[in-house]
Design a protein that fits this description.
With about 325 residues, the chain is of the alpha+beta class. Helices cover about 30% and strands about 30% of the residues. The protein has two domains: about 1-75, no CATH class; about 85-315, no CATH class. It has helices at about 1-35, 35-50, 55-60, 60-75, 130-140, 200-205, 230, 265-275; strands at about 85-90, 95-100, 105-110, 115-120, 145, 150, 160, 165-170, 170-175, 180-190, 195-200, 210, 215-220, 225, 235-245, 250-255, 280-285, 290-295, 295-300, 315. The strands form five sheets. The chain has an eight-stranded antiparallel sheet with strand order 1-2-3-16-15-17-13-14, with helices on one face. Strand 13 and strand 14 form a beta hairpin.
């Protein structure tokens, strides 16, 4: 009798494992070749901006991909709205709000004094990156979000090399673009957010104190930046903006989590910053890097199954 039960249990386990593996193998074919156009469009937009864009090319031709991603651009005038805002926490000079659109959820941190925002850089630059939580603790800050982009010349994948220009306390601490024009996310000595393109020589000329590199610019001096949803797809997002009164707007949007939040398009981010009356705003590194750390814990839902990612820099919020 016991032997018979063991045999039945083994069959059930084998059957369950077979169905699980079969579903995983079959899933991409259903997504890319199935009848669900909305699912296909969302998947293509998300994967193209991930670390494995070649997955899409394995299932769809260049013509099919082009046709699908162009749907994003035609929909850019119809952002994911309305956006619901709810205050979830408040402290001296800081307000945190939960935000929710049709297909995304996230957090917004409003920091009244822009001079509290600094760039934190990994202690082992060009050797190893650090987690946002470590960068916050290293600097004695109370909060932080992931910062600019990075590259991986040695294939180590440990976030040791920031891309573009990185500036801290008015000094260039890393530069892999020479004096070529590069996209910048910067704060000058007065706490004004500077976005767009600059050169290394402009760091002193513009009195830039803190900076990382990323793009696209969403709003510059009150005007909409140039970007295409088809280029960026739908993904977890991190971004920074500023109101006319100097208030800094830090944004994290969760993504690639079907039961929680799909992510946002660039047009969604643009609309969000317009809703917050930003005069300048720019996208930061997103995807599995997207994180908001506050009061000793990560307060958004990370997409990275391994937890916090190791990064070369972050924007941190110092105590008053």
């Amino acid at each position: 009798m016991r032997k018979l039960r063991k045999i039945r249990l083994r069959r059930i386990i084998t059957f369950s494992i077979f169905n699980l593996v079969f579903s995983i193998v079959l899933a991409p074919f259903i997504v890319f070749w199935g009848p669900f156009e909305a699912t296909k469009t969302l998947a293509v937009g998300s994967i193209l901006t991930s670390r494995h864009p070649q997955v899409v090319e394995a299932f769809l031709s260049k013509e099919e991909i082009s046709e699908i991603v162009n749907k994003y651009d035609s929909a850019a005038s119809q952002p994911d709205s309305p956006i619901w805002r709810t205050v979830s926490d408040a402290a001296a000079g800081i307000t945190i709000e939960d935000i929710q659109g049709k297909s995304f959820k996230g957090k917004v941190m409003l920091v009244k004094d822009p001079k509290r925002i600094k760039v934190a850089v990994t202690k082992e630059l060009e050797v190893s990156g650090e987690r946002v939580s470590d960068l916050v603790k290293d600097t004695g800050a109370i909060a932080g979000i992931n910062g600019g982009g990075f590259y991986d010349p040695n294939g180590a994948g440990n976030g040791a090399f920031p891309d573009g220009l990185t500036v801290h306390n008015g000094k260039i601490v890393h530069n892999n673009v020479g004096n070529k024009s590069t996209d910048i996310v910067a704060l000058d000595k007065d706490g004004k957010l500077i976005v767009g393109q600059i050169t290394a020589d402009d760091v002193k000329k513009k009195n830039i104190q803190e900076a990382v590199s990323f793009w696209p610019t969403l709003i510059q001096d009150g005007k909409k930046g140039v970007f295409q949803d088809s280029t960026w797809g739908v993904a977890p997002r991190t971004a920074i903006g500023q109101k006319a009164d100097g208030t800094i707007i830090l944004v994290v949007i969760d993504g690639r989590q079907a039961t929680w939040s799909w992510g946002a398009k660039m047009s969604d981010l643009y609309s969000l910053f317009k809703d917050y009356d930003a005069v300048n705003a720019v996208n930061l590194d997103g995807g599995s890097s997207t994180e908001l750390f506050y009061n000793g814990k990560v307060i958004n839902k990370l997409w990275n199954w391994a937890g916090e990612r190791y990064l070369p820099n972050a924007f941190v919020v110092l105590p008053e």
